Amino acid sequence: MARKKITVIGAGNVGASVAAYASAEELGDVVLVDILEGIPQGKGLDLYETTPVLGVDTAVEGTNDYEKTRGSDLIVITAGIARKPGMSRDDLLSTNVKIVGEVAEKAAHYSPDAVMIVVSNPLDAMVYTAWKKSGFAPRRVMGMAGVLDTARFRTFIAQEIGVSVEDVHALVLGGHGDSMVPLTQSCSVGGIPVSQFISSERLEKIVQRTRDGGAEIVSLLKTGSAYYAPASSAVQMAKSILRDKKRLLPVAAYLQGEFGEDGVFVGVPAILGAAGVERVIELELSPREREGFARSVAAVRELVAHVDRLL
Q1: CA distances from 231 to 141, 192, 218, 267, 271 (A)
Q2: Residue 306 catalytic?
Q3: Looking at residues 128-151, what average pLDDT do you find?
Q4: Cβ-based neighbours of 134, under 8 Å, separated by 6 or more
Q5: Same domain, 192 and 128
Q6: What is the CA radius of gyration of the chain?
Q7: Is there a contact between 255 and 266 (Cβ–Cβ < 8 Å)?
Q8: Residues 276-290: pLDDT tens digits?
Q9: Dihedral, CA atoms, 119, 182, 157, 276, nearest 10 degrees?
Q10: Pick from 98, 120, 143: which residue ends a domain?
Q11: How confident is the model at residue 111 (pLDDT cuts 50, 70, 90)?
Q12: Which one from 109, 169, 176, 306 is the annotated catalytic residue?
């Protein structure tokens, strides 16, 4: 059986880490694409040379040429710039709409049957951009945010209680940013409600730390942002799609009436399989969670309205 083919666009820290994790998991051969000459080629060769050590049979190639991505089963977009000092959010959005739109269009041209995962920020707006420019059906385009936000939430809870992260089950919905909605009522530890381990006041602080998770890492690194956890989160999604595992994961998916919302990509629980987002799972939310989700969707819609003006 032919190996799967994965295109990773953007050879920065996130993209290179996605390529590394995907190769190590033997999810398929990886093509790492970047506009900079030499960077994807060097990182691709370096990663290819890890395969004998790891004992995996996957090829990794770096390139500046989208022709080499032809026939990919999965496209992961990490391209875009990080916000710089003095740069407004509007400036960042305008620049990344252009970058993500261009790469999504090129990748879709060479791999019209692929599934697309977007990691670039501002996440929810970039998923929408990639969908518009790729021409893909909405179920074949999604954003990586919920898996990362949930991983942070689970990490902090496990750390607080002193249990294995494997035993902490949680979900984070909504937009990827300050308005995200960690579902505390659905959170459990080995099947036991988290409220039996952590006071509501302490849990609220963990929720806030989750919302600030990206900013906390930026403040520590000073000159960069998170990449290991975002990359591993994207690869978890990729694994479910490429191996048709039907994992139930929180992703930025296109809503068509679910949760009372329509025509917007936002973080919700979804089943991921070979077809992409195969089903969005609706949950019973508490009044507070519903209110938070509605606020989050409104914030995403504001960004999308700006994208529509730029496209």
Answers
A1: 17, 30, 16, 17, 20
A2: no
A3: 97
A4: 104, 105, 107, 108, 116, 141
A5: no
A6: 19
A7: yes
A8: 999 999 999 999 999
A9: -40
A10: 143
A11: very high
A12: 176
